[in-house]
Amino acid sequence: MVLVGRGGAGAQEAAGAVPVSLRGWDWGTVIDAVAEAASARNDPHLWRLVDALSTEAGGPPHPTLGYPRA
Q: The pTM is what?
Protein backbone atom coordinates (compact mmCIF):
# COMPACT_ATOMS: atom_id res chain seq x y z
CA MET A 1 0.00 0.00 0.00
CA VAL A 2 1.29 3.44 -0.91
CA LEU A 3 -0.19 6.48 0.73
CA VAL A 4 -0.30 9.80 -1.07
CA GLY A 5 -0.38 13.08 0.79
CA ARG A 6 1.31 14.49 3.83
CA GLY A 7 0.27 11.61 6.04
CA GLY A 8 -2.21 11.60 8.85
CA ALA A 9 -5.94 11.76 8.28
CA GLY A 10 -5.62 13.35 4.81
CA ALA A 11 -3.57 10.52 3.28
CA GLN A 12 -5.18 8.38 0.59
CA GLU A 13 -4.13 5.08 -0.94
CA ALA A 14 -2.56 5.52 -4.37
CA ALA A 15 -4.49 4.10 -7.32
CA GLY A 16 -1.38 2.98 -9.22
CA ALA A 17 2.35 3.48 -9.54
CA VAL A 18 3.79 6.42 -7.66
CA PRO A 19 6.98 8.10 -8.89
CA VAL A 20 9.79 8.27 -6.36
CA SER A 21 12.32 11.09 -6.27
CA LEU A 22 15.44 10.68 -4.18
CA ARG A 23 18.80 12.41 -4.20
CA GLY A 24 21.72 10.42 -5.58
CA TRP A 25 23.09 9.75 -2.11
CA ASP A 26 19.72 8.38 -0.99
CA TRP A 27 19.56 6.01 -3.98
CA GLY A 28 23.04 4.81 -3.04
CA THR A 29 21.78 4.04 0.45
CA VAL A 30 18.80 2.10 -0.96
CA ILE A 31 21.04 0.12 -3.34
CA ASP A 32 23.48 -0.68 -0.52
CA ALA A 33 20.66 -1.90 1.74
CA VAL A 34 19.23 -4.13 -0.99
CA ALA A 35 22.73 -5.51 -1.75
CA GLU A 36 23.24 -6.30 1.93
CA ALA A 37 19.90 -8.15 2.05
CA ALA A 38 20.65 -9.97 -1.22
CA SER A 39 23.97 -11.19 0.14
CA ALA A 40 22.59 -12.19 3.54
CA ARG A 41 19.73 -14.15 1.95
CA ASN A 42 21.74 -15.39 -1.04
CA ASP A 43 18.81 -14.14 -3.15
CA PRO A 44 19.42 -13.84 -6.91
CA HIS A 45 16.18 -11.87 -7.35
CA LEU A 46 17.39 -9.17 -4.99
CA TRP A 47 20.75 -9.10 -6.80
CA ARG A 48 18.89 -8.49 -10.07
CA LEU A 49 17.13 -5.58 -8.37
CA VAL A 50 20.53 -4.24 -7.23
CA ASP A 51 21.77 -4.51 -10.83
CA ALA A 52 18.73 -2.67 -12.21
CA LEU A 53 18.86 0.09 -9.59
CA SER A 54 22.60 0.58 -10.02
CA THR A 55 22.33 0.79 -13.80
CA GLU A 56 19.43 3.25 -13.65
CA ALA A 57 21.39 5.39 -11.18
CA GLY A 58 24.34 5.51 -13.60
CA GLY A 59 26.46 3.01 -11.71
CA PRO A 60 28.05 -0.29 -12.73
CA PRO A 61 25.76 -3.08 -13.99
CA HIS A 62 26.78 -5.73 -11.41
CA PRO A 63 27.98 -4.06 -8.19
CA THR A 64 28.80 -6.01 -5.04
CA LEU A 65 29.28 -3.04 -2.72
CA GLY A 66 31.66 -5.23 -0.71
CA TYR A 67 29.10 -7.97 -0.06
CA PRO A 68 29.65 -11.58 -1.15
CA ARG A 69 27.68 -12.33 -4.28
CA ALA A 70 26.85 -15.98 -4.93
A: 0.70
64 in Cβ contact with 35 (< 8 Å): yes
Task: Determine the Cα angle at 65 with ends 28 and 32, to 5°.
Answer: 35
Question: pLDDT tens digit string along 13-60?
Answer: 767 777 778 887 899 999 999 999 999 999 999 999 999 999 998 999
pLDDT at residue 17, as a whole number: 78
Phi and psi at residue 30, in whole multiples of 5°?
-65, -50
pLDDT of 2 > 70? The answer is no
Exposed (0-12), middle (13-18) or buried (19+): which is 32, by Cβ within 10 Å? Answer: middle
Task: Please tell me the distance from the alpha carbon of residue 62 to that of residue 55, in angstroms, as a whole number.
Answer: 8
In whole angstroms, give the CA distance from residue 59 to residue 43: 21
